[in-house]
Amino acid sequence: MTDDSTRRHERIEHHPTPGPLNSLQYWTDAKPVWRVMLNYLFVLVARVAPSLRVRNWALRRIGVTVGTGVSWGLEATPDVFWPELVTVEDHAIIGYDSVILCHEFLQDEYRTGEVVVGKRAMIGAKATILPGVRIGEGAQVAANSLVTRDVPPGTTVAGVPARPMSESESE
């Protein structure tokens, strides 16, 4: 979707896990239990608070970089394990019940990657953004989309996986 010199998978950090179990079984080796519990409590506040000011305050407390004028929709969820890898730039909109993931637990490893939502970008309701993805300035992600690749500035994407929409589709 982008001709950027790096792609999402090239920005992802790989963390091998020991033993025969899947990587989620070793999550406590990756993050302290108390930290994930504290993150979860602040995420819960950010998901249900009626005030945008309170939502953004709660997100900042756990390390999410939240720009000026960000609108964080009800029930939207940032990564609970690595919220410090989420950046939402000025005047972006994160839609209702969307999810921003900065980790993937796999069989033999887990992966982490920063997600950046650019200035004035819009993430539609129930969209999911995968680790390492960059959403460009003024880009739009349609509702219910799965974003597996970077979205160039000013582009509208939709679908599973999300792909650029043609001019006629986006009107």
TrEMBL record:
InterPro entries with a match to the protein in the record: Hexapep, Hexapep_transf_CS, Trans_hexapeptide_repeat, Trimer_LpxA-like_sf
GO MF, one example: transferase activity
Domain of life from the UniProt record: Archaea
Gene3D superfamilies reported for this sequence: Hexapeptide repeat proteins
UniProt keyword terms in alphabetical order: Transferase
Keyword Nucleotide-binding: no
Region (Disordered) location: 152-171
Keyword Transferase listed: yes
The protein, known as: Acetyltransferase
